[in-house]
Structure formats: C-alpha cells, structure tokens
Design brief:
This protein has 206 residues and is mainly β. It contains one helix and 16 strands. The strands form five sheets. The protein has a four-stranded mixed β-sheet, with no helix packed on it. Strands 11-10-13-14 form a four-stranded antiparallel β-sheet, with no helix packed on it. The longest helix has 5 residues.
C-alpha cells in the first residue's frame, strides 16, 4: 500500500526553518503481511522514501507488461517519480483485461475471483479512480505464491489458477477454467479473446 503525502496547509515546523515551500512530506509504503497486517517499508530499503516532496496523486499500473504494478507519483512543483515493481519470477502472477461489449471500454466495477489449486480464493475489482485527479491501469493482476510446501519456485503448481469467475456490475457472471500464469487474458463481456488481443510484455534490458 502506497501513501502519497503532501500538506495543503503550511507546516509550521518547516516555515520556522525558513523553508521556501513548507508543504513537503515524505511518502510512505506499507508491505502487506497478510491477515490484515501491514509493516512500513523504511528508507534504507527504498531510498526514494527519504525524499520529501509535495505529492498530490499516484497512478498504479503495469507499465511494461511484466505483471508488476508500477507507480507514478505526481508532485506539485516537482518532477514525477516512477517506482518500478521488480518481478524476478515471471510466472508468479496472472492478469485480466476485462472489457465491456464494445471491446474497448474497461468493464468498471467487474469483480474477478481466482481460485487456485491450493484452494485459495483471490478477488480483484476493475477500477480506475483511486487518487486525486489520477486514473489507474484498468487491468487487474493477481499475485501467485511461490515456495509452496517448501519446494521453492517449483512448488508454484499449488497456486496455479484453477478456475476464474467474473461477476459484472449488473450481476451477470462468466466462469473459466485454468488459465496460464505469467500473462494477461482479455475477456470481453464473458468471452475469452485469443492471446494476440492481450498486451504483449516487453523485455527489460539487463
């Protein structure tokens, strides 16, 4: 969970030091430990968190099609920042591009529920609005666990998507069997599209 910070009223401690722009604050990143528990990431792990700026909005989206949700941070009177998500194992996710009948508009409000072979059910919802004057990537990404039963990445089989249920805002549902991990699957109002309709991942240079 990322929190973009920036005051809208003068911070007296900064003004007292003669700061020319006494509104800046450091941003925050929290790691989800599961079970409703989060732990704050410190600046030694991510040096950008030590930078104090006036952040006004954050856009979340997969910029390079690798399944990692990247962040673009928009600052007042300052440069935009990009936080790139690193995904060392490409098969540890599955993504969905859910669209309305016209095939172009995102199916806002649609919920996708992924049931893995281990019995875990993971739910995501299509939405774009989440931060001030920003629009997120409408595609949804579901992370899959690795190291199941202490086997390392070869144990990923227990977390492969076994079944997928899509529930649209009007209550209409569509179900699908196992879909390959490590890629996006485009579903146009209940119909799975051929692979070449999905975004093509791009390679990062080493």
């Amino acid at each position: 969970m990322f929190v973009a910070n920036g005051a809208v009223k003068t911070l007296e401690n900064l003004a007292a030091r003669g700061d020319p722009y006494p509104l800046h604050q450091p941003n925050q990143l929290f790691h989800n430990r599961g079970g409703g528990s989060f732990v704050e990431v410190n600046e030694s792990e991510l040096p950008l968190l030590a930078v104090s700026e006036v952040s006004r909005g954050t856009i979340a989206g997969d910029l390079d099609g690798d399944g990692g949700v990247d962040l673009i941070i928009l600052n007042n009177c300052g440069p935009a920042r990009i936080l790139r998500a690193r995904t060392p194992t490409p098969s540890e996710w599955v993504g969905f591009d859910l669209r309305d009948r016209n095939g172009r508009s995102p199916a806002i409000g649609t919920e996708v529920a992924v049931t893995t072979a281990s019995g875990r059910v993971i739910k995501r919802r299509v939405r774009v609005a989440a931060s001030y004057l920003c629009a997120n990537d409408p595609r949804v990404v579901v992370g899959l666990r690795r190291g199941i039963e202490g086997k390392g990445t070869e144990g990923l089989g227990a977390e492969l998507p076994l079944s997928i249920q899509v529930t649209y805002a009007g209550g209409e549902t569509a179900s699908f069997g196992a879909l390959a991990p490590g890629q996006y699957h485009t579903i146009v109002r209940g119909e799975l599209q051929p692979r070449d309709h999905s975004p093509t991942p791009t390679r990062r240079s080493p």
